[in-house]
Amino acid sequence: MTTSYQFCTRVRAAGHSAAALPALLKTAFLIVAFFVLPPLVFPHGAIAAVTISETGTAGYEVGVPAMEADEPAPSSSLSYVCDGAFLLPGVVCELTLSVTDAANLQYAGLELDYDPERFDFEQILPGDLFGADAVVFARPLPDGSLGASVSSTSGEQSGSGSLLHLQFRIRDGADAGTAGFAVNDIEFTDRDAVPLEIAAPDPVDIDIPPYLADAGLTAPGPVTIARGSEQLFRFRLAASGITEEDISASDRLEAEFGIIASDASLPDAPAPEAWDAAEWLPLTLTEFSDGHFRFETLFPIDQPVGSWLVLGRFQLDDQPELYAAYGSDGGGIWDGDQFTAPEVTVTTPRVTIAEWTFDGEHWSADTGLYANLDPDSPAVAALHGARFSGWTGGNTGRAPNSNQWHVEQNNGSDNNGGTGDNGDNGGTEDNGGSDGGSDSDANGDSGDNGGGSDNGTVSGDHHHKYWSASLTTQGHDQLALRFYMSGSGTGPRDFRLYFQTDNSEGESGNGSGSGSPTEWTPVPGGDIQVGTSWSAFDIPLPADASDAGRLNLRWVRIDSTSINGDVIGTSGTNRIDDIRITGVPLEQEEMTVWPGNTRGEGTVSEADVINLALYWMATGPARVPQSIEWAPQPVTRWLPAPVGHADTNGDGRIDYRDLLAIGRNFGETAETGVQPKALTDAAEQQKTGDNTALAAFHLPGLSKNETVRLVLSAQDFSELLGLSARFSISGIDAADWELLDVRPGDWAESWSDASRLITFHHGRSPASLSANRHKLAHSPDADISAGTDLHSSQSGRVYLTDESQSSVSGIPAGWSSAWAHKGMGRPSSPSESGLAVIELRALSDWNQAPVLSLDRASFTTGSDGLQQPARGDWKFRKDGRGVFTDPDPGIQLPQETRLHANYPNPFNPVTAVPFDLHQPGHVAITVYDALGRRVDTLMDARMEPGRHEISWDAGRLASGVYLIRMETGTLQQVRTMMLVK
Questions:
Q1: What burial letters (b/e) apply to 459-484, b meaning 16+ CB within 10 Å?
Q2: Which positions fall inside the Secretion system C-terminal sorting domain (predicted)?
């Protein structure tokens, strides 16, 4: 193979004297031959000494002289040195051709085989033997080899040393493994171009180890998230020579996610390699394919509010770290310019200020700030000008329906715009009570009652027909509104959202600041076009709506165009549903809570259920992280602060899920130093461990299977909204008695029927609950691993039971019970039925008289916190029906005949109807539609006493309200059912 051409510097005459050539031509030729022309290497590697002869026809003859090798043969070697400790892409390796015992050496040339897929040739440098003035030449050849040579400019050299240096750079993407360098041809000559005998040096192998080739942060880029919300980050990694097994079976690869405060972007901030080790979290390998890895991680939900920079960090063995950064196209290795650490802005979690689902078919907010649930100043929705036409299927659950949007006049008599209209919109207590006329006046809507100032125009739009909502946004800004709206084809299409603030009650706010309502102002981006299907609308509210003592909103119909493009029809409908206003707390001060201790005084007991009930469905900042572990946990301060203690699970809403922490941490005590309210006698007694019974009753001696019923009452007990009590039995083994039932008196019956009652049991659960537990749906969020069992029936009753028999605070084994109205309500007055009814069964013959004790008790009227009558004012009495013997302990006869509420309700299409029979008799159960027409007969037969249940499948019927009636020889009872398809 021809790799180079070499002209020697000695010219010998052939046939004519060289002196016959013109002197100038000879001189010029020699210069060009030595310094300009490339070396000549003949096919077999012999270097030619060029003989130039003058012929008859001007030209030159090239001849090859005989090879002379009088001197000893030199020995050659090939070695390499690479920059850096790791042979990774970008590293330069230098190969050196050296000679020992060289005699009269002036030229050296070689042909080198190498892997051009792994190495790029950089340059050739002369070695020490010929010195820096030597002439070097190198050229990559088409077959992937390299031709290189060096010539001395100062005559022949003798001795040992390096002849030339060849520099190669490891290519980006080079495969890991062994890369060989081999000399397949080598030539040494003296000054007369006489070849010297030389053997090719041994090959050289360079091992490229497995390495990380590339990395990047693929998604997301810069992002803003609320603290506590989940945000997934994804990374890619390319590697050579690494398999999935290498990673999974060893700890060779470190993959981490780094977070640092955003001031790291400043010029004097540390580079990624200087980030604090505490800021790095593990990444999870999710995918591997042919040297390409995918990793991901969730941004820490408890990362504080602020701005943060994020990166990925990868390291294989002890090799240099690779920092995965974000770029516009899949990310890359951090360089601070094209590939950078994206910024993650963590904001305060949003709070639900008020939300209307309308599923309860009322106009008050279902959930929101405690101030928006206050009966004296609730967050309410209403309809004005158009006609309320009943409740219908909504975006989810139920929604208000309306028609008569076509009438332009607003005279209070022709179009239900006055008192009549407001009555239709919720004048009765069931539909929201004061949510009608009087409330709309307080909200600045007096013009809707027949003219007034609001019968004019605002920004050219008539405020004649509209939906409205009124709420407080005090203490919050960055407000956002979401709602759903739909209508029939002949219903109104175009609406515009307006707002007005009113701080006349003296609250701080961003309203007019003058203590009077501001003008009605269009909300930017608040023009709405409604369709026939439910559509979501997300609209940020202006800053002026923030921190307002009262914020009023109107969804105003702005023209007469229907959804189908014609004029609005008389029967054209419009519906609104799932209105939700959220915001961010202005104050970031933190408070400390103990999960389960809703009163904030440091001890968990049944009394905590009452506070949870009082604040039912109130909202505030979520706790990050959300945990019910018994430990002090910080949370952004709620408004008002005492309400925040009732959010025991930290999800930002007080509901049945918060019962679990009470059961889990029951009896735990901590010195919190937090007392949001003055401790009453009941709380102080519990806190100090005073376990003297409030009341005691010596039970009669019972025979096996006999039962006794007792009633708990108290003096000067006028009304209550919740009751909690701890009971125990002493003087008898726990295995000798059974708690058949413990329930509130008739003061809570209406709450139970309306699905507004919380029932809590800790300790020995009543058999009446256990027998019917199959009818209760487990909450999907329930955690029963600690012996606490949380249930929530579809009808809205909430139960918490704990089967633990251990004593609490030194009190003999017994049970704790609590009953309370969910949310703000009207206190109820107990009757002769007492505060609580307890029914016990003897499981063996009692040879002694056990004692039933009331160890502690509390009640509330809803406005004055927990209260307790003085010790001695509580008492037990035996129920007038006395003691009886049940011949079959497996049968528990109901005490009265009763039709219970169906469940679920609303339902689709099957519901269960439970009922009790106190004595045998004929039973007829019939279903009627809203017009009184009989649509089904579920039962018409004689039944034995006991608890019964029948199922009704309404799949063939349309959605709507249905009535179910039970008739016996002594009872006629009717209940309402709602079928929603």
A1: eebbbbbbbbbbbbbbbbbbbebebb
A2: 903-976
Short-list 36, 102, 77, CA closest to 186? 77
CB atoms within 10 A of CB 925: 21
Report the SS3 class of residue 641.
helix
Query: Is the CB of residue 760 less than 8 Å from the CB of residue 817?
Result: yes
Using DSSP, how many helices (H) and how many strands (E) does the chain show?
10, 56
Three-class SS of 181-243: EEEEEEEEECCCCCEECCCCCCCEEEEECCEEEEEEEEECCCEEEECCCCCEEEEEEEEECCC
- The pLDDT score that the predictor gives to residue 847 is 78
Edge to edge, the sheet with strand 119-126 lists 75-82, 92-105, 157-170, 119-126
Query: CB–CB of 418/446 below 8 Å?
Result: no
Tokens for 61, please give them: 């003859």
Q: Which residues contact 975 (CB under 8 A, 6 or more apart)?
A: 899, 901, 902, 963, 964
Would strands 551-557 and 466-471 be described as parallel, antiparallel, or unpaired?
A: antiparallel
Of 886, 882, 901, 884, nearest to 946 by C-alpha is 886
Pairing of strands 590-593, 633-636: antiparallel
Average of per-residue pLDDT values in the chain: 78
Specify which residues 624 forms β-bridges with.
Answer: none
- Give the three-state DSSP class for 423: helix
Q: How far apart are CA 584 and CA 164, in angstroms?
A: 72
Instruction: Give me the count of residues in the chain.
Output: 981
Collect all residues with Cβ–Cβ distance below 8 Å to 297 and sequence separation of at least 6. Answer: 232, 233, 257, 281, 282, 283, 284
DSSP-derived secondary structure letter, 22:
-
Q: What residues contact residue 332 under an 8 Å CB cut-off, 6+ apart?
A: 214, 215, 216, 324, 325, 338, 339
Angle at CA of residue 322, ends 318 and 326, nearest 5°: 165
Q: What is the DSSP letter of 569?
A: P
> What pLDDT shows up at residue 264?
60
Tokens 């007492």, residue located: 834
Which of 861, 877, 858, 879 lies closest to 869, judged by CA?
858
pLDDT for res 256:
94
* pLDDT tens digits, 283-318: 999 998 888 999 999 999 888 888 999 999 999 988
- The 10s digit of each residue's pLDDT in 654-698 is 988 888 888 888 889 986 544 433 333 334 444 444 557 888 888
The pLDDT of residue 29: 33
* Closest alpha carbon to 606 in 863, 752, 819: 819
Give strand ranges (E) for 611-694. 633-636
Tokens in use for 310? 């994020």
User: 367: which strand partners?
Assistant: 355
Q: Which residues of the chain have pLDDT under 70?
A: 1-72, 249, 264-270, 277-278, 408-462, 503-516, 671-691, 716-717, 768-813, 863-864, 880-893
Tens-digit pLDDT profile for residues 722-735: 999 999 998 888 88
What digits encode the pLDDT tens for the residues 947-972? 788 889 898 899 999 999 999 988 88
Strands, DSSP E only, in 749-813?
757-763, 788-792, 798-802
